[in-house]
Design brief:
It is built from six helices and twelve strands. It is of the alpha+beta class. The strands form two sheets. It has a seven-stranded mixed beta sheet with strand order 1-2-3-7-6-5-4, sandwiched between helices. It has a five-stranded antiparallel beta sheet with strand order 11-10-9-8-12. The N and C termini lie far apart (47 Å). The protein binds biotin. Biotin (BTN) binds next to helix 2, strand 3, strand 6 and strand 7.
Length: 270
């Protein structure tokens, strides 16, 4: 095994786990097409809330907006949680925001580093992405029958292993600290924090966390651009709405974004 790779066997994870439910039931695979795909299959077959699917390698890892998620075998964390949330299907966006806040907190405490969120649910350190979340849900009417939250975290990936376009936009625990990290330890820390986020969300809803999310938002007060109705709109991020939408002040007025991909406008591009 190359340096910086370790095995993520369920026993390794369980011995470090401090959660009530998240990850207590776990499926480990050396290789799978996508942990989200397998987790959906398990959820459809009745797998319970909080169960974890984790893999060392994905051959068809999925990212947001139909992109792929590439990760060298054995370096990073690739996992999905099966959830059966009580709330309405409309709450999925703000729930994933709550999760990204939990991931940022876990990485900030453990590494330690100054991890923040990039709306909606990336986690970044000084503008470089360290983790991404893909939520996929199955709904019946207004109810969510199950929600799969798939999370990829760059743990031991070397700078030269990132694809060219990501080399100056991504980072890992290794590139931040110059040392290898035990992935089971990082996973256990993240599971604990996202379980706390989930419990708080279930108890008090996203509004109770909106201020923390806002404070952790790297693009707060910054200029961004996004596509809307066939044109490019630019504006300044001023906050996050109680339902998780991103609030942007534009020349045409205040807009709340839900679907749009937001790109930071660097000063020299203005
Ligand atoms: C993003 O585009 O930022 C979201 C990336 C999510 C990747 C993770 S890796 C584990 C899980 N399985 C997948 O196929 N995707 C998610």
């Amino acid at each position: 095994m190359p340096r910086g790779t370790d095995l993520l066997l369920p026993g390794e994870i369980r011995s470090r786990l401090d959660t009530r439910l998240f990850g207590r039931r776990a499926y480990y695979l050396p290789e799978v097409d996508s942990t989200n795909r397998l987790a959906s299959e398990l959820a459809r077959a009745g797998e319970s809330h909080g169960s974890l699917v984790v893999a060392d390698h994905q051959t068809g890892g999925r990212g947001r907006r139909d992109r792929s998620w590439e990760s060298p075998a054995g370096r990073n964390l690739l996992f999905s949680l099966i959830l059966r949330p009580e709330g309405s299907a409309r709450e999925v966006l703000s729930l994933t925001l709550a999760f990204s806040l939990g991931i940022a907190r876990a990485l900030s405490d453990l590494v330690p580093t100054n991890a923040g969120v990039k709306w909606p649910n990336d986690v970044e350190v000084e503008g470089r992405k360290i983790a991404g979340t893909l939520a996929e849900s199955s709904t019946r009417g207004e109810r969510t029958t199950y929600l799969i939250v798939g999370i990829g975290v760059n743990v031991n990936e070397r700078l030269e292993e990132f694809g060219g376009e990501f080399r100056d936009r991504a980072c890992s625990c290794y590139t931040l600290t110059g040392r290898d990290w035990n992935r089971a330890e990082v996973l256990a820390a993240i599971l604990l924090q996202i379980e706390k986020s989930y419990d708080e969300f279930a108890r008090a809803g996203f509004p109770s966390m909106a201020d923390r999310y806002k404070l952790s938002l790297g693009i707060l007060g910054k200029r961004v651009r996004f596509e809307r109705r066939g044109g490019t709109v630019a504006g300044t991020v001023t906050g996050v709405a109680p339902d998780g939408g991103l609030v942007v002040e534009t020349p045409g007025g205040t807009l709340t974004l839900y679907e749009e991909e937001v790109v930071r406008v660097r000063e020299e591009q203005r």
